[in-house]
Amino acid sequence: MHELRVAPSILSADFARLADEVADVAPAVSMVHVDVMDAHYVPNLTLGPPVVRSLRAATPLFLDAHLMITDPRTYAPQVVAAGADSVTFHPEVEDDPLGLVELLRDVGSQVGVAVRPHQPLSLVEELLESIDLLLVMTVQPGFGGQAFQPEVLPKIAEAVAARERLGARFRIEVDGGISPDTVGGTAAAGADTFVAGSAVFDHLDRPAAARAVLAAAEAGRREAADGGPSAAG
Ligand SMILES: O=C(CO)[C@@H](O)[C@H](O)COP(=O)(O)O
């Protein structure tokens, strides 16, 4: 069972003060989540390899990049070269997603694939044995501050079952609307990595906010193990 971890999403940070924002939350976390958007795959535009390179120079934290772009084959290796530790892409934009997973491994990256709320797990079935991370989006990708979609919870449990069936090792990350109020159910269902943007950066005390998300996730996992109220049905 993977250790639980919170990945603050810098999408909700002050982009003019990114290094300070990351340093601010660093005492409470081991990683940060970096959303790369191209205004084509999603209707928003954020940052690219130069900003990842600056972040790499500014922090030793694990950089978990999520590419919401239509051309990951071109840009994912650049994001790795800029210093990302893990790169997650959306497989439906790729002709050969398994080939891209292997290419990213060859350049030394951990690799994730993402599924949007309406997409079935079958979309990534053939990749599950080769990836480090399955990102289950709990909102439509593109913007921070959206409401968590609880209808995604069964897909997390399905991913856990597929992992057991395949003898795979991938982590399960959730992203979108994650807060101390919503994270417990995702942990109970089997998620182990929790991206939280506004639930961390909209608070003055970011380490306390990140720890509150982690504590609620740990409670959710514990209650599920005990057959308690957050247990996934
Ligand atoms: O990928 C995305 C949005 O597409 C996220 O990583 C957001 O940054 C999450 O923000 P919150 O919902 O936690 O505010």
TrEMBL record:
<dbReference type="InterPro" id="IPR013785">
    <property type="entry name" value="Aldolase_TIM"/>
</dbReference>
<comment type="pathway">
    <text>Carbohydrate degradation.</text>
</comment>
<feature type="binding site">
    <location>
        <position position="33"/>
    </location>
    <ligand>
        <name>a divalent metal cation</name>
    </ligand>
</feature>
<dbReference type="GO" id="GO:0006098">
    <property type="term" value="P:pentose-phosphate shunt"/>
</dbReference>
<keyword id="KW-0479">Metal-binding</keyword>
<dbReference type="GO" id="GO:0046872">
    <property type="term" value="F:metal ion binding"/>
</dbReference>
<dbReference type="GO" id="GO:0004750">
    <property type="term" value="F:D-ribulose-phosphate 3-epimerase activity"/>
</dbReference>
<keyword id="KW-0862">Zinc</keyword>
<keyword id="KW-0119">Carbohydrate metabolism</keyword>
<dbReference type="GO" id="GO:0019323">
    <property type="term" value="P:pentose catabolic process"/>
</dbReference>
<feature type="binding site">
    <location>
        <position position="9"/>
    </location>
    <ligand>
        <name>substrate</name>
    </ligand>
</feature>
<dbReference type="GO" id="GO:0005737">
    <property type="term" value="C:cytoplasm"/>
</dbReference>
<keyword id="KW-0413">Isomerase</keyword>
<feature type="binding site">
    <location>
        <position position="177"/>
    </location>
    <ligand>
        <name>substrate</name>
    </ligand>
</feature>
<feature type="binding site">
    <location>
        <begin position="142"/>
        <end position="145"/>
    </location>
    <ligand>
        <name>substrate</name>
    </ligand>
</feature>
<feature type="binding site">
    <location>
        <position position="35"/>
    </location>
    <ligand>
        <name>a divalent metal cation</name>
    </ligand>
</feature>
<dbReference type="InterPro" id="IPR000056">
    <property type="entry name" value="Ribul_P_3_epim-like"/>
</dbReference>
<dbReference type="Pfam" id="PF00834">
    <property type="entry name" value="Ribul_P_3_epim"/>
</dbReference>
<keyword id="KW-0464">Manganese</keyword>
<comment type="similarity">
    <text>Belongs to the ribulose-phosphate 3-epimerase family.</text>
</comment>
<dbReference type="InterPro" id="IPR011060">
    <property type="entry name" value="RibuloseP-bd_barrel"/>
</dbReference>
<feature type="binding site">
    <location>
        <position position="66"/>
    </location>
    <ligand>
        <name>a divalent metal cation</name>
    </ligand>
</feature>
<protein>
    <recommendedName>
        <fullName>Ribulose-phosphate 3-epimerase</fullName>
        <ecNumber>5.1.3.1</ecNumber>
    </recommendedName>
</protein>
<feature type="binding site">
    <location>
        <position position="175"/>
    </location>
    <ligand>
        <name>a divalent metal cation</name>
    </ligand>
</feature>
<feature type="binding site">
    <location>
        <begin position="175"/>
        <end position="177"/>
    </location>
    <ligand>
        <name>substrate</name>
    </ligand>
</feature>
<keyword id="KW-0170">Cobalt</keyword>
<feature type="active site" description="Proton acceptor">
    <location>
        <position position="35"/>
    </location>
</feature>
<comment type="function">
    <text>Catalyzes the reversible epimerization of D-ribulose 5-phosphate to D-xylulose 5-phosphate.</text>
</comment>
<feature type="active site" description="Proton donor">
    <location>
        <position position="175"/>
    </location>
</feature>
<feature type="binding site">
    <location>
        <position position="66"/>
    </location>
    <ligand>
        <name>substrate</name>
    </ligand>
</feature>
<dbReference type="InterPro" id="IPR026019">
    <property type="entry name" value="Ribul_P_3_epim"/>
</dbReference>
<feature type="binding site">
    <location>
        <begin position="197"/>
        <end position="198"/>
    </location>
    <ligand>
        <name>substrate</name>
    </ligand>
</feature>
